[in-house]
Amino acid sequence: MIVDDIHLAGIGTYVPPLVPLEEAVRQGWFAPGAAEESGLVSVAVETTLSAPDMAVAAAREALEQAGHEPGDFAALLHSGVHYQGPDNWSAPHYVLHRTLDQPIPAFGIGHGCLSALTSLHLAAGLLRPDAPGRRALLVTAADNFSTPLVDRWNDSEHAVYADSGVALVVSTRGGFARLKAVGSRSLPELEGVHRGDEPLLPPARHSEHPMRVGPRLRAWSERSGGGPLAMVEAVNRFGELVAELAELTLAEAGVGWDSVTRVAHTGFNEDALHALLLDPLGVPAKLGTWDHLRTVGHASVGDHVLGLAHLWRTGQVGVGDHVLLVGATEGMEAGCAVVEITEAGPRTPRPDTERRNP
Fold first, then answer.
1. CATH architecture of the region 2-176
2. Which of 165, 225, 310, 354 has CA 20 to 30 A from 287's CA?
């Protein structure tokens, strides 16, 4: 989707204390071999603040930077992949009440780890030029996995779950970056990869049935009849989808690969990151945000915003640079966005970086 006159006016992040992997191993939470294979250094763990409260903290930071008045906002979009609070309660309105406190819609976006990119996609439509008076939209995303319903260290072989809150102020007035294109594509025939042999009714999500992604992936492989090779084929097909989507999104943005300075991606463990995203794109890890996310873990809905904020705040991208945001979620679905940096971050100049392999 080609985007016109949509900007990022503010960016906010909340990252809790980091638990070194050595400590997780010493405590018996994470097996030594798995810790080494992950490539991670530490993981962000929040034991006090809820996910919506972390979103509020990030939103207040983004709003202060953006400088918009509360009355400028058309809506709030909030997301999270894990429980946000009591059932039949609205986390988006909790965030809205403690930030903008305006009588505007507050939507919950349920698009897994692509939710922040999907929110940008929706924001581009909500702030379209033919909608007078709509000047800004607040995007928030947060998760806290410190619950008995998930084992952040061992739930998935592909990632270790991190707690965080992030926020973006999307604006038609200007900002530190311009959104040039955003989109997603899916392989719906692979939805069963993350379903495995779990029943749909009753939904298997309660205290006696913690979330475990790994067993579902193995169950799908066995049921498909292909065993481990079925998963290899699925990963290869998804990699092709990622590459096709990236090419399409860059073309819509009018940007060539030689103009992509950095890539902000999902915070998978090292092997999964290469197999699902970096290798299909031909992007070396040094051009991604692995150097930062390996200290945080997989922040679910927050990875792309954390990566972009880190690149911009530390001066690793500057005015005129393009950042490709790319990620994956269940479905299977890939998402991409292209942003151009239009204002210098707190730290400049940017050090030279190697470009993507031709």
1. 3-Layer(aba) Sandwich (3.40)
2. 165
